[in-house]
Amino acid sequence: MKKYLIIVVLLVMAFPGSALAQKVALKTNFLYWATTTPNAGVEVRLADRYTFNLEGGYNPFTLDGSNETNKKLKHFLVTPEVRYWFCEAFNGHFIGIHGNYSQFNVSAVEIPDVFYSLSSPSGMTGMDKNSRNEGWAAGAGISYGYQWILGKRLNLEATLGLGYWYTDYDEFDNRKCGMFQQTHSRHLLGITKCGVSLIYLIK
Q: How far is residue 106 from each of residues 40, 62, 64, 195, measured CA to CA in Å?
Protein backbone atom coordinates (compact mmCIF):
# COMPACT_ATOMS: atom_id res chain seq x y z
CA MET A 1 0.00 0.00 0.00
CA LYS A 2 2.85 2.42 0.74
CA LYS A 3 4.09 2.40 -2.83
CA TYR A 4 0.64 3.37 -4.13
CA LEU A 5 0.45 6.30 -1.69
CA ILE A 6 3.86 7.44 -2.92
CA ILE A 7 2.60 7.33 -6.52
CA VAL A 8 -0.39 9.50 -5.59
CA VAL A 9 1.86 12.10 -3.92
CA LEU A 10 4.25 12.19 -6.90
CA LEU A 11 1.39 12.66 -9.37
CA VAL A 12 -0.06 15.52 -7.34
CA MET A 13 3.37 17.18 -7.10
CA ALA A 14 3.80 16.81 -10.87
CA PHE A 15 0.84 19.15 -11.41
CA PRO A 16 1.49 22.00 -8.92
CA GLY A 17 -1.45 24.23 -8.16
CA SER A 18 -3.81 22.03 -10.16
CA ALA A 19 -4.90 19.00 -8.16
CA LEU A 20 -5.43 20.80 -4.87
CA ALA A 21 -7.39 23.62 -6.52
CA GLN A 22 -9.62 21.38 -8.60
CA LYS A 23 -12.17 18.65 -7.98
CA VAL A 24 -11.75 15.58 -5.84
CA ALA A 25 -14.28 12.74 -6.02
CA LEU A 26 -15.13 9.95 -3.57
CA LYS A 27 -16.77 6.84 -4.97
CA THR A 28 -18.00 3.31 -4.36
CA ASN A 29 -18.65 0.50 -6.85
CA PHE A 30 -22.11 -1.14 -6.66
CA LEU A 31 -21.01 -4.19 -8.68
CA TYR A 32 -18.15 -4.83 -6.27
CA TRP A 33 -20.56 -4.61 -3.30
CA ALA A 34 -22.59 -7.38 -5.00
CA THR A 35 -19.67 -9.74 -4.26
CA THR A 36 -20.00 -8.85 -0.51
CA THR A 37 -16.87 -6.71 -0.78
CA PRO A 38 -16.73 -3.28 0.91
CA ASN A 39 -14.93 -0.85 -1.41
CA ALA A 40 -14.11 2.83 -1.91
CA GLY A 41 -12.13 5.07 -4.21
CA VAL A 42 -10.83 8.58 -4.67
CA GLU A 43 -10.23 10.48 -7.92
CA VAL A 44 -8.26 13.71 -8.26
CA ARG A 45 -8.20 16.06 -11.24
CA LEU A 46 -4.62 16.66 -12.38
CA ALA A 47 -5.43 18.88 -15.38
CA ASP A 48 -8.46 19.84 -17.48
CA ARG A 49 -8.67 16.40 -19.10
CA TYR A 50 -6.58 14.21 -16.81
CA THR A 51 -7.43 12.57 -13.49
CA PHE A 52 -5.79 10.03 -11.20
CA ASN A 53 -8.13 7.38 -9.80
CA LEU A 54 -7.33 5.00 -6.93
CA GLU A 55 -9.82 2.30 -5.90
CA GLY A 56 -9.64 -0.57 -3.46
CA GLY A 57 -11.70 -3.30 -1.86
CA TYR A 58 -11.29 -5.61 1.12
CA ASN A 59 -13.32 -8.74 1.84
CA PRO A 60 -12.51 -10.44 5.19
CA PHE A 61 -15.65 -12.58 5.36
CA THR A 62 -16.13 -16.33 5.57
CA LEU A 63 -19.50 -16.88 3.88
CA ASP A 64 -20.02 -20.40 5.23
CA GLY A 65 -17.68 -21.68 7.93
CA SER A 66 -18.82 -25.30 7.91
CA ASN A 67 -16.11 -27.89 7.36
CA GLU A 68 -17.91 -29.29 4.31
CA THR A 69 -18.42 -25.99 2.46
CA ASN A 70 -15.75 -23.59 3.77
CA LYS A 71 -17.13 -20.91 1.41
CA LYS A 72 -15.14 -17.67 1.28
CA LEU A 73 -14.11 -14.85 -1.05
CA LYS A 74 -11.43 -13.30 1.14
CA HIS A 75 -9.20 -10.84 -0.72
CA PHE A 76 -8.02 -7.30 -1.12
CA LEU A 77 -7.64 -5.44 -4.42
CA VAL A 78 -5.92 -2.14 -5.24
CA THR A 79 -6.38 -0.45 -8.64
CA PRO A 80 -4.53 2.78 -9.54
CA GLU A 81 -5.48 4.41 -12.86
CA VAL A 82 -4.66 7.47 -14.97
CA ARG A 83 -7.60 8.73 -17.06
CA TYR A 84 -7.95 10.96 -20.11
CA TRP A 85 -11.34 12.67 -20.58
CA PHE A 86 -12.57 13.56 -24.07
CA CYS A 87 -14.45 16.69 -22.95
CA GLU A 88 -13.65 17.60 -19.34
CA ALA A 89 -12.82 15.77 -16.14
CA PHE A 90 -15.75 14.07 -14.39
CA ASN A 91 -18.09 14.50 -17.34
CA GLY A 92 -18.72 12.19 -20.31
CA HIS A 93 -16.39 9.70 -22.00
CA PHE A 94 -12.94 8.71 -20.74
CA ILE A 95 -10.24 6.14 -21.35
CA GLY A 96 -7.74 4.95 -18.77
CA ILE A 97 -4.63 2.90 -18.14
CA HIS A 98 -4.73 0.98 -14.88
CA GLY A 99 -2.86 -1.59 -12.82
CA ASN A 100 -4.13 -4.18 -10.31
CA TYR A 101 -2.71 -6.01 -7.33
CA SER A 102 -4.61 -8.55 -5.24
CA GLN A 103 -4.08 -11.22 -2.61
CA PHE A 104 -6.82 -13.80 -2.16
CA ASN A 105 -8.06 -16.85 -0.27
CA VAL A 106 -11.06 -18.19 -2.20
CA SER A 107 -13.03 -21.43 -1.90
CA ALA A 108 -16.41 -22.85 -2.98
CA VAL A 109 -17.25 -19.70 -4.94
CA GLU A 110 -18.49 -19.73 -8.53
CA ILE A 111 -16.14 -17.44 -10.49
CA PRO A 112 -17.39 -16.59 -14.01
CA ASP A 113 -15.16 -17.82 -16.83
CA VAL A 114 -14.20 -14.34 -18.06
CA PHE A 115 -10.51 -15.07 -18.62
CA TYR A 116 -8.49 -16.83 -21.30
CA SER A 117 -5.45 -18.69 -20.03
CA LEU A 118 -2.26 -18.32 -22.05
CA SER A 119 -0.75 -21.02 -19.81
CA SER A 120 -3.19 -23.77 -20.80
CA PRO A 121 -3.58 -25.34 -24.28
CA SER A 122 -7.35 -25.49 -23.70
CA GLY A 123 -7.53 -21.84 -22.67
CA MET A 124 -9.27 -22.77 -19.39
CA THR A 125 -8.43 -20.74 -16.31
CA GLY A 126 -8.11 -23.88 -14.19
CA MET A 127 -9.37 -22.53 -10.82
CA ASP A 128 -11.61 -25.27 -9.43
CA LYS A 129 -14.59 -24.01 -7.40
CA ASN A 130 -14.49 -27.28 -5.44
CA SER A 131 -11.04 -26.45 -4.06
CA ARG A 132 -9.55 -23.67 -1.95
CA ASN A 133 -7.13 -21.36 -3.76
CA GLU A 134 -4.76 -18.99 -1.98
CA GLY A 135 -2.24 -16.64 -3.58
CA TRP A 136 -1.78 -13.34 -5.37
CA ALA A 137 -2.43 -11.70 -8.73
CA ALA A 138 -1.18 -8.60 -10.57
CA GLY A 139 -2.21 -7.13 -13.89
CA ALA A 140 -2.73 -4.13 -16.11
CA GLY A 141 -5.29 -3.04 -18.66
CA ILE A 142 -7.00 -0.35 -20.70
CA SER A 143 -10.44 0.87 -19.66
CA TYR A 144 -13.29 2.84 -21.17
CA GLY A 145 -16.01 4.57 -19.20
CA TYR A 146 -18.63 7.26 -19.01
CA GLN A 147 -19.83 9.56 -16.24
CA TRP A 148 -23.32 11.05 -15.99
CA ILE A 149 -23.93 14.20 -13.94
CA LEU A 150 -26.82 13.54 -11.54
CA GLY A 151 -26.61 16.74 -9.54
CA LYS A 152 -24.29 19.42 -8.21
CA ARG A 153 -22.24 16.91 -6.22
CA LEU A 154 -23.37 13.51 -7.51
CA ASN A 155 -22.28 11.54 -10.60
CA LEU A 156 -22.84 8.01 -11.84
CA GLU A 157 -20.06 6.11 -13.60
CA ALA A 158 -19.89 2.94 -15.70
CA THR A 159 -16.53 1.50 -16.71
CA LEU A 160 -15.03 -1.69 -18.18
CA GLY A 161 -11.37 -2.65 -18.53
CA LEU A 162 -9.61 -5.42 -20.46
CA GLY A 163 -6.03 -6.59 -20.20
CA TYR A 164 -3.56 -9.03 -18.66
CA TRP A 165 -3.27 -10.82 -15.31
CA TYR A 166 -0.49 -12.93 -13.83
CA THR A 167 -1.48 -15.07 -10.86
CA ASP A 168 0.39 -17.48 -8.61
CA TYR A 169 -1.61 -19.53 -6.11
CA ASP A 170 -1.67 -22.77 -4.13
CA GLU A 171 -4.58 -25.20 -4.43
CA PHE A 172 -5.88 -27.11 -1.38
CA ASP A 173 -8.72 -29.51 -0.62
CA ASN A 174 -11.87 -27.48 -0.04
CA ARG A 175 -12.26 -28.04 3.70
CA LYS A 176 -10.75 -26.58 6.82
CA CYS A 177 -7.05 -27.50 7.02
CA GLY A 178 -7.39 -29.20 3.62
CA MET A 179 -4.36 -30.93 2.14
CA PHE A 180 -2.13 -29.11 -0.35
CA GLN A 181 -2.65 -30.25 -3.95
CA GLN A 182 -0.48 -28.17 -6.29
CA THR A 183 0.82 -24.70 -7.18
CA HIS A 184 -0.46 -22.81 -10.23
CA SER A 185 1.20 -19.98 -12.15
CA ARG A 186 -1.01 -18.56 -14.89
CA HIS A 187 -0.97 -15.83 -17.53
CA LEU A 188 -4.52 -14.65 -18.24
CA LEU A 189 -6.31 -12.30 -20.63
CA GLY A 190 -9.71 -10.86 -19.81
CA ILE A 191 -11.56 -8.37 -17.64
CA THR A 192 -9.28 -6.28 -15.43
CA LYS A 193 -11.90 -3.79 -14.25
CA CYS A 194 -15.69 -3.53 -14.13
CA GLY A 195 -17.85 -1.08 -12.27
CA VAL A 196 -21.02 0.95 -11.83
CA SER A 197 -20.13 3.56 -9.24
CA LEU A 198 -21.83 6.35 -7.33
CA ILE A 199 -19.60 9.42 -7.05
CA TYR A 200 -19.62 12.35 -4.63
CA LEU A 201 -17.73 15.42 -5.82
CA ILE A 202 -15.85 17.58 -3.32
CA LYS A 203 -15.35 21.14 -4.57
A: 21, 9, 12, 21
Distances (CA, A) of 122 to 8, 56, 125, 130, 181: 40, 32, 9, 20, 21
203 pLDDT above the threshold of 80:
no
CB 44 within 8 A of CB 19: yes
**Each residue's pLDDT tens digit, 66-75:** 666 788 899 9
Helix (H, G, I), strand (E, B) or coil at 12: helix
Residues across the chain: 203
Q: Contact at 8 Å (CB) between 193 and 164?
A: no
- In 86-130 the beta strands, taken as DSSP E runs, fall at 92-107, 115-117
H or E element that contains 51: strand 50-59
At residue 2 the predicted structure's pLDDT band, cuts being 50, 70 and 90, is: very low
| Residues 6+ away with beta carbon under 8 Å from 59 | 35, 36, 37, 38, 73, 74, 75, 76
Distance (Å, rounded) from C-alpha 43 to C-alpha 45?
A: 7
Q: How far apart are CA 102 and CA 188, in angstroms?
A: 14
Q: What is the pLDDT of residues 159-173, one digit of tens each?
A: 999 999 999 999 988
161 and 139 Cβ atoms separated by less than 8 Å: no
